[in-house]
Specification:
globular, about 15% strand, 6-stranded mixed sheet, Arc Repressor Mutant, subunit A, about 475 residues, 4 domains, DNA-binding, DNA binding
Length: about 475
């Protein structure tokens, strides 16, 4: 049974943007004013006929009225509400759903304040350590802009339509859609249109991966880069030279609180364009469907790296031509999530480590293999979870190799589109009980729990010992 769509906030925002009263909107949609009032107050869901009427009357993409963003917002609010600061308020699931549904803008403001509160508390708690280590106290606050940018991509489903379409247009011009090798096409384009000369530098790890001098029009790529990475750096330079205004307007529309976040997002958008130029939307979507998302085949057929393929799969959410909605994550050996994007309801922890039962951690022990896991989140939604480790060899003696685990997953309802689900009996297969993080996970029977949830009382029995040395209410 499909989920009902309660999107009163979206309807109200559209009406206010158009400058219409509820009665005027009702007249345009051929419904009663009381019905519009009930929709805006989330007393009644949007029906298919009303969604279609809104789309036809106001030329609005009806996918913007979906429930996925609210699902993410509810999960983020639940994590924030688990803070001990709010324990006596007894904020339940229905409370956070009501806030997310009726005023998502207020919910986002609350999350921003909670992040600021946590950062202040962490800064105070670690002040002595930082002073002892010689770290300036203000440096801790520099982490916040990165989180702000990650949230921006999180809430746009990791898809930026204007940039994606612009990249596809350039790819068509350069012949990428006809199979012209990207590195060759990008190098020739930079020379012909921008008089940029491309050189390969020494394989010196002390030098930057790429360096562009606008004065001399000289782009130097590190000799340590693999072919797919060279092509990516060339594509990012094309984005910088040709689409700086589009990127700037996109950053401006995001309304970041500080210049640092804006600059971080600008670089991320250049990289987004580069990925979209290397793997043009329609061509890659068709290829992914034809190969049923076989990762090794996609790497072989596209010439992209495994990480580039993982990331691009998570961005295929163009209205009217959507691919399978995937989450994508990049995790280091310490369990830190260094990249996270999601077009699904799968939730990543905003604070703390990832769930220990998630197969990305196991991927480090299975180099070269794609691990397949059926995972279930606390909300009961099941996912096909894929994980694969990648390593970057050391370039000099004494330098450690860098290793990461890449995670990619979709809801189990899309199993028929994924080659990795072939032969997998979803009804009989073992199911990993996943959670967002231990701090908000409600599971009482997890042997991998690192610490108790923040919104529960701990119970200790001195006469009973188990793997987890406590229970909770």
């Amino acid at each position: 049974m499909r989920q009902k769509v309660y999107a009163g906030h979206a309807v109200r925002r559209l009406r206010e943007k158009l400058g219409l009263k509820q009665s005027e909107l009702a007249q345009r949609l051929a419904v009663s004013p009381s019905y519009i009032n009930q929709i805006e107050s989330n007393q009644r869901p949007l029906t298919a006929s009303v969604l279609i009427a809104i789309s036809r009357t106001f030329d609005v993409d009806i996918t913007s009225f979906g429930a996925e963003d609210l699902d993410r917002l509810v999960a983020d609010l639940r994590e924030a509400a688990a803070d001990p600061l709010f324990r006596d308020l007894d904020l339940g699931l229905q409370d956070v759903k009501a806030v997310a549904n009726l005023s998502p803008a207020f919910a986002h403001a609350f999350l921003r304040m909670h992040v600021a509160l946590r950062r202040t508390a962490e800064w105070r708690a670690s002040l002595d350590d930082m002073l002892t280590a010689g770290i300036a106290p203000g440096d801790e606050a520099k982490l916040v802009p990165y989180e702000e940018v990650r949230d921006y991509f999180h809430y746009v489903d990791n898809y930026v339509d204007s940039l994606d379409r612009a990249a596809e247009a350039v790819a068509l011009t350069l012949g990428i859609l006809e199979g012209v090798p990207p590195e060759q096409a990008f190098t020739a384009h930079l020379a012909a249109r921008h008089q940029v000369s491309v050189e390969t530098g020494h394989a010196d790890p002390a030098e930057p991966l790429s360096s562009f001098d606008p004065r001399t029009r000289r782009l130097v790529l590190s000799g340590t880069l693999a072919p797919a990475s060279r092509a990516f750096r060339l594509a990012a330079t094309i984005a910088q030279l040709e689409h700086a205004e589009l990127v700037a307007s996109t950053v401006a529309s995001a309304r970041f609180r500080g210049q640092t976040a804006a600059e971080i997002c600008k670089l991320a958008l250049y990289n987004y364009f580069a990925g979209a130029l290397m793997l043009p939307y329609r061509r890659f979507l068709d290829l992914a469907r034809a190969r049923r998302h076989d990762l090794d085949r996609l790497v072989l057929d596209s010439g992209a790296s495994l990480e580039q393929v993982f990331h691009r799969l998570s961005t295929l959410q163009r209205p009217g031509a959507k691919g399978v909605p995937f989450y994508f994550a990049k995790v280091d050996r310490a369990g830190n999530i260094t990249k996270r994007h999601s077009a699904t309801r799968f939730q990543f922890a905003r604070h703390g480590g990832a769930c220990a039962a998630w197969n990305v951690h196991e991927a480090f022990e299975m180099a070269g293999r794609t691990l397949v896991q059926v995972g279930e989140m606390p909300d009961g939604v099941r996912y096909i979870c894929l994980a694969r480790s990648v390593s970057i060899p050391a370039t000099r003696h004494g330098q450690p190799a860098r290793a990461y685990a890449l995670g990619l997953g979709c809801e189990a309802s899309f199993a028929h589109d994924i080659v990795y689900a072939d032969g997998l009996d979803l009804k009989a297969a073992p199911v990993a009980k996943l959670g967002v993080s231990c701090r908000i996970c409600p599971r009482r029977d997890c042997d991998l729990r690192a610490f108790p949830p923040l919104d529960r009382d701990i119970r200790i029995d001195e006469n009973v010992r188990d793997i987890v040395p406590f229970t909770f209410s």
